[in-house]
Protein backbone atom coordinates (compact mmCIF):
# COMPACT_ATOMS: atom_id res chain seq x y z
CA UNK A 1 0.00 0.00 0.00
CA UNK A 2 1.11 3.54 -0.73
CA UNK A 3 2.20 5.33 2.43
CA UNK A 4 -0.17 8.07 3.45
CA UNK A 5 1.01 11.59 3.97
CA UNK A 6 -0.47 14.50 5.83
CA UNK A 7 0.51 17.96 4.76
CA UNK A 8 -0.76 21.48 5.18
CA UNK A 9 -3.06 22.90 2.53
CA UNK A 10 -1.09 25.09 0.09
CA UNK A 11 2.16 23.56 1.25
CA UNK A 12 2.65 26.30 3.82
CA UNK A 13 5.43 25.81 6.34
CA UNK A 14 4.19 28.47 8.67
CA UNK A 15 4.05 27.77 12.38
CA UNK A 16 0.98 27.48 14.58
CA UNK A 17 -1.55 24.73 14.86
CA UNK A 18 -3.58 25.70 11.81
CA UNK A 19 -7.29 25.16 11.75
CA UNK A 20 -9.68 22.48 10.62
CA UNK A 21 -9.31 21.92 6.91
CA UNK A 22 -5.78 23.34 6.77
CA UNK A 23 -4.32 19.84 6.84
CA UNK A 24 -4.77 17.39 3.99
CA UNK A 25 -4.67 13.64 4.31
CA UNK A 26 -3.45 11.87 1.17
CA UNK A 27 -5.13 8.51 1.10
CA UNK A 28 -4.95 7.25 -2.48
CA UNK A 29 -4.07 7.98 -6.06
CA UNK A 30 -0.48 8.33 -7.11
CA UNK A 31 2.34 10.25 -5.51
CA UNK A 32 2.06 12.89 -8.28
CA UNK A 33 -1.72 13.06 -8.21
CA UNK A 34 -2.87 12.00 -4.75
CA UNK A 35 -6.43 11.90 -3.51
CA UNK A 36 -6.54 14.46 -0.71
CA UNK A 37 -9.11 14.73 2.03
CA UNK A 38 -9.37 17.74 4.31
CA UNK A 39 -8.86 16.99 7.98
CA UNK A 40 -11.82 17.89 10.13
CA UNK A 41 -10.05 18.69 13.37
CA UNK A 42 -6.57 19.67 14.31
CA UNK A 43 -4.97 18.90 17.66
CA UNK A 44 -1.65 20.38 18.70
CA UNK A 45 -0.73 21.00 15.08
CA UNK A 46 -1.61 17.45 14.03
CA UNK A 47 -4.81 16.23 12.38
CA UNK A 48 -7.02 14.60 14.94
CA UNK A 49 -8.43 11.77 12.88
CA UNK A 50 -5.07 10.37 11.85
CA UNK A 51 -4.46 7.26 13.91
CA UNK A 52 -0.69 7.46 13.95
CA UNK A 53 1.42 10.40 12.97
CA UNK A 54 5.05 11.25 13.14
CA UNK A 55 6.85 14.30 11.90
CA UNK A 56 10.27 13.81 10.33
CA UNK A 57 12.83 16.07 12.01
CA UNK A 58 12.85 19.51 10.37
CA UNK A 59 9.80 18.78 8.20
CA UNK A 60 6.29 20.18 8.17
CA UNK A 61 4.98 16.91 6.74
CA UNK A 62 3.61 14.06 8.76
CA UNK A 63 3.93 10.50 7.50
CA UNK A 64 2.71 7.03 8.34
CA UNK A 65 1.51 3.82 6.75
CA UNK A 66 -1.92 3.33 5.30
CA UNK A 67 -2.30 -0.03 7.01
CA UNK A 68 -2.32 1.84 10.31
CA UNK A 69 -5.26 3.99 9.37
CA UNK A 70 -8.50 2.98 10.99
CA UNK A 71 -11.19 4.63 8.93
CA UNK A 72 -14.24 3.33 10.78
CA UNK A 73 -13.21 3.55 14.42
CA UNK A 74 -10.86 6.37 15.26
CA UNK A 75 -8.80 6.54 18.41
CA UNK A 76 -9.96 9.37 20.64
CA UNK A 77 -7.38 12.02 21.41
CA UNK A 78 -8.20 14.42 24.19
CA UNK A 79 -7.23 18.06 23.97
CA UNK A 80 -7.72 18.80 27.61
CA UNK A 81 -8.57 17.17 30.91
CA UNK A 82 -11.63 14.96 30.53
CA UNK A 83 -14.69 15.59 32.63
CA UNK A 84 -15.37 12.48 34.68
CA UNK A 85 -18.96 12.80 35.83
CA UNK A 86 -19.65 9.10 36.20
CA UNK A 87 -17.18 6.27 36.68
CA UNK A 88 -17.89 2.55 36.98
CA UNK A 89 -15.42 0.60 39.12
CA UNK A 90 -15.33 -3.13 38.51
CA UNK A 91 -13.89 -5.14 41.40
CA UNK A 92 -14.75 -2.19 43.67
CA UNK A 93 -14.69 -4.25 46.86
CA UNK A 94 -11.08 -5.38 46.36
CA UNK A 95 -7.90 -4.11 48.01
CA UNK A 96 -7.31 -1.64 45.19
CA UNK A 97 -10.93 -1.17 44.10
CA UNK A 98 -11.88 0.26 47.49
CA UNK A 99 -9.14 2.87 47.21
CA UNK A 100 -10.23 3.73 43.65
CA UNK A 101 -13.74 4.33 45.03
CA UNK A 102 -12.31 6.70 47.69
CA UNK A 103 -10.13 8.55 45.19
CA UNK A 104 -12.98 8.88 42.65
CA UNK A 105 -15.31 10.26 45.29
CA UNK A 106 -12.59 12.73 46.27
CA UNK A 107 -12.64 13.87 42.63
CA UNK A 108 -16.38 14.47 43.00
CA UNK A 109 -17.37 11.82 40.46
CA UNK A 110 -20.57 9.84 40.66
CA UNK A 111 -19.21 6.41 41.55
CA UNK A 112 -20.86 3.16 40.54
CA UNK A 113 -19.20 0.36 42.48
CA UNK A 114 -19.69 -3.03 40.83
CA UNK A 115 -19.88 -6.20 42.90
CA UNK A 116 -21.38 -9.65 42.65
CA UNK A 117 -22.97 -9.20 46.08
CA UNK A 118 -24.48 -5.82 46.93
CA UNK A 119 -25.26 -6.65 50.56
CA UNK A 120 -21.63 -7.62 51.24
CA UNK A 121 -20.29 -4.63 49.29
CA UNK A 122 -22.40 -2.08 51.19
CA UNK A 123 -20.62 -3.05 54.39
CA UNK A 124 -17.21 -2.41 52.81
CA UNK A 125 -17.73 0.70 50.70
CA UNK A 126 -18.23 4.37 51.59
CA UNK A 127 -21.81 5.61 51.54
CA UNK A 128 -21.15 8.05 48.70
CA UNK A 129 -20.73 5.17 46.25
CA UNK A 130 -23.69 3.67 44.42
CA UNK A 131 -23.33 -0.09 44.79
CA UNK A 132 -24.37 -1.91 41.62
CA UNK A 133 -24.75 -5.68 41.54
CA UNK A 134 -23.77 -7.30 38.24
CA UNK A 135 -21.80 -10.24 36.94
CA UNK A 136 -18.77 -8.53 35.37
CA UNK A 137 -18.40 -11.10 32.59
CA UNK A 138 -22.03 -10.80 31.45
CA UNK A 139 -22.52 -8.23 28.66
CA UNK A 140 -26.26 -7.86 29.30
CA UNK A 141 -25.68 -7.29 33.01
CA UNK A 142 -22.95 -4.72 32.33
CA UNK A 143 -24.90 -2.60 29.85
CA UNK A 144 -27.14 -0.83 32.38
CA UNK A 145 -24.28 -0.10 34.79
CA UNK A 146 -22.03 1.17 32.00
CA UNK A 147 -24.65 3.41 30.45
CA UNK A 148 -23.45 7.02 30.46
CA UNK A 149 -20.15 6.22 32.23
CA UNK A 150 -17.27 8.48 31.18
CA UNK A 151 -14.78 5.93 32.42
CA UNK A 152 -14.61 2.38 33.67
CA UNK A 153 -11.83 1.25 36.00
CA UNK A 154 -11.19 -2.49 36.28
CA UNK A 155 -9.50 -3.76 39.44
CA UNK A 156 -11.02 -7.22 39.61
CA UNK A 157 -8.94 -10.02 41.10
CA UNK A 158 -9.80 -13.37 39.60
CA UNK A 159 -6.58 -15.31 40.08
CA UNK A 160 -8.28 -18.09 42.07
CA UNK A 161 -11.32 -18.59 39.84
CA UNK A 162 -10.61 -22.29 39.26
CA UNK A 163 -10.10 -21.54 35.56
CA UNK A 164 -6.47 -20.48 35.68
CA UNK A 165 -7.54 -16.84 35.88
CA UNK A 166 -9.42 -16.82 32.54
CA UNK A 167 -12.27 -14.86 34.17
CA UNK A 168 -9.99 -11.83 34.19
CA UNK A 169 -9.99 -11.88 30.37
CA UNK A 170 -13.72 -12.59 30.13
CA UNK A 171 -14.49 -9.49 32.18
CA UNK A 172 -12.42 -7.22 29.91
CA UNK A 173 -14.01 -8.80 26.84
CA UNK A 174 -17.49 -8.24 28.25
CA UNK A 175 -16.76 -4.57 29.05
CA UNK A 176 -15.53 -3.95 25.49
CA UNK A 177 -18.56 -5.69 24.00
CA UNK A 178 -20.96 -3.86 26.29
CA UNK A 179 -19.48 -0.47 25.33
CA UNK A 180 -19.83 -1.47 21.70
CA UNK A 181 -23.44 -2.55 22.21
CA UNK A 182 -24.18 0.75 23.97
CA UNK A 183 -22.49 2.81 21.26
CA UNK A 184 -20.13 4.41 23.80
CA UNK A 185 -16.79 4.52 21.95
CA UNK A 186 -15.46 7.44 24.02
CA UNK A 187 -15.73 5.77 27.43
CA UNK A 188 -12.17 5.44 28.73
CA UNK A 189 -11.08 2.06 30.13
CA UNK A 190 -8.43 1.88 32.86
CA UNK A 191 -7.28 -1.66 33.53
CA UNK A 192 -5.12 -2.93 36.40
CA UNK A 193 -3.05 -6.00 35.52
CA UNK A 194 0.36 -6.73 37.09
CA UNK A 195 4.07 -6.28 36.57
CA UNK A 196 5.42 -9.16 34.44
CA UNK A 197 2.11 -9.29 32.59
CA UNK A 198 3.84 -9.15 29.21
CA UNK A 199 5.78 -12.34 29.89
CA UNK A 200 4.55 -15.87 29.43
CA UNK A 201 3.93 -18.21 32.35
CA UNK A 202 7.21 -19.93 31.53
CA UNK A 203 8.82 -16.84 33.10
CA UNK A 204 6.38 -16.06 35.91
CA UNK A 205 5.11 -19.57 36.65
CA UNK A 206 1.55 -18.24 37.00
CA UNK A 207 -1.12 -19.05 34.44
CA UNK A 208 -3.31 -16.17 35.61
CA UNK A 209 -0.63 -13.76 34.41
CA UNK A 210 -1.14 -15.09 30.87
CA UNK A 211 -4.78 -14.04 31.02
CA UNK A 212 -3.80 -10.55 32.13
CA UNK A 213 -1.54 -10.22 29.07
CA UNK A 214 -4.34 -11.49 26.83
CA UNK A 215 -6.77 -9.01 28.37
CA UNK A 216 -4.28 -6.18 27.82
CA UNK A 217 -4.00 -7.21 24.17
CA UNK A 218 -7.75 -7.25 23.72
CA UNK A 219 -8.04 -3.76 25.14
CA UNK A 220 -5.31 -2.44 22.82
CA UNK A 221 -7.14 -4.03 19.87
CA UNK A 222 -10.45 -2.50 20.90
CA UNK A 223 -9.77 1.02 19.59
CA UNK A 224 -11.00 2.45 22.91
CA UNK A 225 -9.07 5.02 24.89
CA UNK A 226 -7.26 3.08 27.63
CA UNK A 227 -4.70 3.15 30.42
CA UNK A 228 -3.14 -0.16 31.41
CA UNK A 229 -1.60 -0.07 34.88
CA UNK A 230 0.77 -2.82 35.99
CA UNK A 231 1.39 -2.43 39.71
CA UNK A 232 4.28 -3.72 41.76
CA UNK A 233 3.68 -5.42 45.11
CA UNK A 234 0.88 -3.83 47.08
CA UNK A 235 2.00 -2.14 50.33
CA UNK A 236 5.69 -3.12 50.07
CA UNK A 237 6.79 0.49 49.65
CA UNK A 238 9.00 2.24 52.20
CA UNK A 239 7.59 4.82 54.61
CA UNK A 240 9.09 7.73 52.64
CA UNK A 241 7.99 6.45 49.24
CA UNK A 242 5.42 9.12 48.47
CA UNK A 243 6.28 9.69 44.80
CA UNK A 244 4.71 7.74 41.93
CA UNK A 245 7.38 6.07 39.82
CA UNK A 246 6.13 5.06 36.35
CA UNK A 247 8.17 2.62 34.28
CA UNK A 248 7.63 0.98 30.90
CA UNK A 249 8.98 -2.15 29.23
CA UNK A 250 8.03 -4.56 32.03
CA UNK A 251 11.68 -4.94 33.03
CA UNK A 252 11.44 -4.58 36.80
CA UNK A 253 11.90 -7.77 38.82
CA UNK A 254 11.93 -8.58 42.53
CA UNK A 255 9.46 -7.06 44.98
CA UNK A 256 9.27 -3.33 44.35
CA UNK A 257 6.41 -1.96 46.40
CA UNK A 258 3.55 0.33 45.56
CA UNK A 259 1.11 2.30 47.67
CA UNK A 260 -2.43 1.29 46.66
CA UNK A 261 -3.38 4.98 46.52
CA UNK A 262 -0.73 5.44 43.83
CA UNK A 263 -2.28 2.64 41.75
CA UNK A 264 -5.73 4.18 42.15
CA UNK A 265 -4.47 7.64 41.23
CA UNK A 266 -2.83 6.48 38.01
CA UNK A 267 -5.94 4.48 37.04
CA UNK A 268 -8.15 7.56 37.51
CA UNK A 269 -5.77 10.23 36.25
CA UNK A 270 -5.08 8.09 33.19
CA UNK A 271 -8.76 8.48 32.36
CA UNK A 272 -8.75 12.21 33.06
CA UNK A 273 -5.61 13.43 31.33
CA UNK A 274 -4.88 13.59 27.60
CA UNK A 275 -1.54 11.79 28.00
CA UNK A 276 -3.20 8.94 29.90
CA UNK A 277 -4.64 7.55 26.72
CA UNK A 278 -3.09 4.50 25.01
CA UNK A 279 -0.63 4.10 27.88
CA UNK A 280 0.84 0.94 29.37
CA UNK A 281 2.76 1.73 32.54
CA UNK A 282 4.24 -0.10 35.50
CA UNK A 283 3.54 1.71 38.78
CA UNK A 284 5.78 1.76 41.85
CA UNK A 285 6.27 4.07 44.82
CA UNK A 286 9.62 5.77 45.33
CA UNK A 287 11.12 8.32 47.67
CA UNK A 288 10.22 11.91 46.94
CA UNK A 289 7.28 14.26 46.94
CA UNK A 290 3.75 13.30 45.91
CA UNK A 291 2.88 13.95 42.26
CA UNK A 292 0.79 17.06 41.71
CA UNK A 293 0.84 17.27 37.89
CA UNK A 294 -0.48 13.99 36.52
CA UNK A 295 -0.55 15.22 32.94
CA UNK A 296 3.20 15.88 33.16
CA UNK A 297 3.78 12.48 34.80
CA UNK A 298 1.91 10.68 32.02
CA UNK A 299 3.29 12.85 29.23
CA UNK A 300 6.79 11.67 30.20
CA UNK A 301 5.78 8.13 29.18
CA UNK A 302 5.33 6.83 25.64
CA UNK A 303 2.01 5.93 24.09
CA UNK A 304 1.58 2.41 22.75
CA UNK A 305 2.12 2.06 19.02
CA UNK A 306 -1.17 2.17 17.12
CA UNK A 307 -2.10 -1.24 15.84
CA UNK A 308 0.30 -2.99 18.22
CA UNK A 309 -0.98 -5.56 20.70
CA UNK A 310 1.91 -5.00 23.10
CA UNK A 311 3.07 -2.26 25.43
CA UNK A 312 5.30 0.24 23.63
CA UNK A 313 8.58 -0.85 25.22
CA UNK A 314 7.73 -4.49 25.92
CA UNK A 315 10.23 -6.98 24.53
CA UNK A 316 10.29 -10.75 23.96
CA UNK A 317 6.57 -10.65 23.36
CA UNK A 318 4.50 -13.79 23.01
CA UNK A 319 3.43 -14.33 19.37
CA UNK A 320 -0.30 -13.92 18.83
CA UNK A 321 -0.30 -17.33 17.14
CA UNK A 322 0.74 -18.85 20.48
CA UNK A 323 -2.33 -17.48 22.22
CA UNK A 324 -5.48 -19.65 22.56
CA UNK A 325 -7.67 -19.74 19.44
CA UNK A 326 -10.44 -17.78 21.13
CA UNK A 327 -8.06 -14.96 21.96
CA UNK A 328 -6.89 -14.83 18.36
CA UNK A 329 -10.50 -14.76 17.20
CA UNK A 330 -11.42 -11.99 19.63
CA UNK A 331 -8.45 -9.85 18.58
CA UNK A 332 -9.29 -10.35 14.89
CA UNK A 333 -12.94 -9.50 15.52
CA UNK A 334 -12.12 -6.27 17.39
CA UNK A 335 -9.40 -5.16 15.00
CA UNK A 336 -11.76 -5.76 12.07
CA UNK A 337 -14.61 -3.62 13.37
N1 LIG B 1 -1.09 -8.39 45.71
C1 LIG B 1 -0.19 -7.79 44.98
O1 LIG B 1 0.88 -7.36 45.44
C2 LIG B 1 -0.46 -7.63 43.52
C3 LIG B 1 0.47 -6.97 42.73
C4 LIG B 1 0.19 -6.75 41.38
C5 LIG B 1 -1.00 -7.20 40.85
N2 LIG B 1 -1.88 -7.88 41.63
C6 LIG B 1 -3.12 -8.33 41.02
O2 LIG B 1 -4.17 -7.58 41.58
C7 LIG B 1 -5.33 -8.40 41.67
C8 LIG B 1 -5.82 -8.39 43.06
O3 LIG B 1 -6.19 -7.11 43.39
P1 LIG B 1 -7.03 -6.95 44.69
O4 LIG B 1 -6.34 -7.67 45.80
O5 LIG B 1 -7.37 -5.54 44.85
O6 LIG B 1 -8.32 -7.74 44.23
P2 LIG B 1 -9.15 -8.78 45.04
O7 LIG B 1 -9.44 -8.17 46.34
O8 LIG B 1 -8.54 -10.12 44.98
O9 LIG B 1 -10.42 -8.83 44.08
C9 LIG B 1 -11.11 -7.67 43.71
C10 LIG B 1 -12.58 -7.99 43.53
O10 LIG B 1 -12.72 -8.78 42.36
C11 LIG B 1 -13.96 -9.50 42.50
N3 LIG B 1 -13.74 -10.89 42.11
C12 LIG B 1 -12.97 -11.80 42.71
N4 LIG B 1 -13.05 -13.00 42.08
C13 LIG B 1 -13.92 -12.83 41.06
C14 LIG B 1 -14.45 -13.68 40.06
N5 LIG B 1 -14.07 -14.98 39.97
N6 LIG B 1 -15.30 -13.18 39.17
C15 LIG B 1 -15.68 -11.87 39.24
N7 LIG B 1 -15.23 -11.01 40.19
C16 LIG B 1 -14.35 -11.49 41.08
C17 LIG B 1 -14.38 -9.43 43.96
O11 LIG B 1 -15.48 -8.55 44.06
P3 LIG B 1 -16.93 -9.04 44.56
O12 LIG B 1 -16.77 -10.25 45.40
O13 LIG B 1 -17.45 -7.85 45.32
O14 LIG B 1 -17.71 -9.31 43.32
C18 LIG B 1 -13.17 -8.83 44.63
O15 LIG B 1 -13.48 -8.03 45.75
C19 LIG B 1 -4.97 -9.79 41.33
O16 LIG B 1 -5.51 -10.11 40.07
C20 LIG B 1 -3.46 -9.78 41.33
O17 LIG B 1 -2.94 -10.63 40.33
C21 LIG B 1 -1.64 -8.09 42.94
UniProtKB/TrEMBL annotation:
Pfam families: NAD_binding_10. InterPro entries: NAD(P)-bd_dom, NAD(P)-bd_dom_sf. Residues 91-271 form the NAD(P)-binding domain. Coiled coil: none annotated. Gene3D superfamilies: NAD(P)-binding Rossmann-like Domain. Residues 1-22 are annotated as: Disordered. It comes from the Bacteria. Residues 12-21 have a biased composition (Gly residues). PANTHER family: FLAVIN REDUCTASE-RELATED, OS06G0360300 PROTEIN. This is NAD-dependent epimerase/dehydratase family protein. It comes from Actinomyces lilanjuaniae. The lineage of its organism: Bacteria, Bacillati, Actinomycetota, Actinomycetes, Actinomycetales.
Amino acid sequence: MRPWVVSRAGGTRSGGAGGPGSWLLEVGGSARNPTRLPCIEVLGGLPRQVFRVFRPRGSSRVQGSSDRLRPRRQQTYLKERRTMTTVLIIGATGQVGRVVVEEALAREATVRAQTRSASRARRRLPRGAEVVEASPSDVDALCPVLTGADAVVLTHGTDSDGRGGATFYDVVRAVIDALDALGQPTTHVSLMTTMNASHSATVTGYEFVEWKRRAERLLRASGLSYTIVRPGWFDYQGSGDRRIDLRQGDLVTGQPGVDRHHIAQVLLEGALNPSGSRRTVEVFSASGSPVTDFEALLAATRADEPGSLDGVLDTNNVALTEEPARVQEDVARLAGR
